[in-house]
Amino acid sequence: MVQVLRKIYGFLIDSVQTFLIAAAIFLVIYLFLFRPYEVKGDSMYPNFYDKEYVLTNLILLKFQAPKMGDVVVFKSPVEPEKDYIKRIIGLPGDSIYIKDGDVYLNGEMLNEGKYLNSSVKTHQGAFLQNDEQITVPENMYFVLGDNRDASSDSREWGFVKKDSLIGVSMFVYLPINKMRIVANPY
Q1: Partner of 89 at 20 to 30 A CA spacing, among 8, 30, 118, 143?
Q2: Partner residues linked to 160 by β-bridges
Q3: Is 8 domain-assigned?
Q4: Is the residue at 30 inside a domain?
Q5: Is 43 a catalytic residue?
Q6: Among 51, 67, 75, 86, which one carries the catalytic annotation?
Q7: pTM for the complete prediction?
Q8: Is residue 147 included in any domain, yes or no?
């Protein structure tokens, strides 16, 4: 009887240790490396859909600056309690303007054909008017939603501060039938 109780006690101790180790690993990953993000709305359609879940790399931005074309999650400049997901179009020092529905980056029309249909036109906003050129300041980024007609983005509220960036989207994991890697098109 005593041996049976020792085996049960040993099993319980092993189970608790395994659970605690797994929980610690999960917390380290969740707090410091990767975090899930739910896409809310259609601002990134057709590349991201409402209610999809994206795994966001939190550590990448600690070691390198985001790149043009990265899809990032950041604290909203207009509603800081909300997180937004958008594509980086302009880096610090870049000049941007919109002309006849096309985005120009540093004087050249931006080729967005790898992630947008060629019929998509980019319209002006309150911050960026048609034919008005702006330069992205240091430690700031210019972001746009892929669904230009249904996105509140830098055209409306201006630049995103570097310290507002949370992470770079790496992988869509839900729904399972739409799993995919989020690749930078540039």
Answers
A1: 30
A2: 141
A3: no
A4: no
A5: yes
A6: 86
A7: 0.88
A8: yes
